[in-house]
Design a protein that fits this description.
The protein is mostly helical. The chain is built from six helices and no strands. It has helices spanning 3-17, 20-40, 46-69, 73-87, 96-110, 118-121. The chain is extended.
């Protein structure tokens, strides 16, 4: 199931539950994804959807920080609630151990032994 379809289903559930905060956050996310689709004039790939979500996540973090800096805790809390909804649809970040394992596998696959081999590892 594509991300947009999942978001639309979640939006319907939020509307039925009368959860205004979640409904509004889902509408913003859907709007961003649809705008990106219109800009590219084609459906988004999974990695492009993730980029849009990451961009929206960054915006929410920056907005919450700016509101806090201005002493507007209520607006900052609203941004953080939207951020929590947004993060439900993002993949879980890799743990440090998982990341190290992937890097070690790449190094072993290439047979890198020195810093000069870094380009091949990448």
């Amino acid at each position: 199931m594509s991300l947009i379809v999942r978001l639309e289903e979640e939006l319907k559930q939020a509307m039925v539950a009368r959860d205004e905060t979640r409904r509004d956050a889902l509408r913003l996310i859907l709007s961003s994804l649809r705008s990106a689709e219109k800009e590219l004039q084609r459906p988004l790939h999974d990695d492009e959807e993730l980029q849009v979500l990451q961009r929206e996540r960054k915006r929410r973090l920056e907005a919450a920080e700016a509101f806090r800096g201005g002493g507007r805790e209520e607006q900052a809390a609203g941004e953080e609630q939207e951020l929590a909804v947004l993060e439900e649809f993002m993949p879980a970040p890799l743990s440090e151990d998982e990341l190290e394992e992937i890097i070690d596998d790449a190094i072993a696959e290439v047979g890198a032994t020195s810093i000069r081999d870094l380009g091949r590892v990448m």
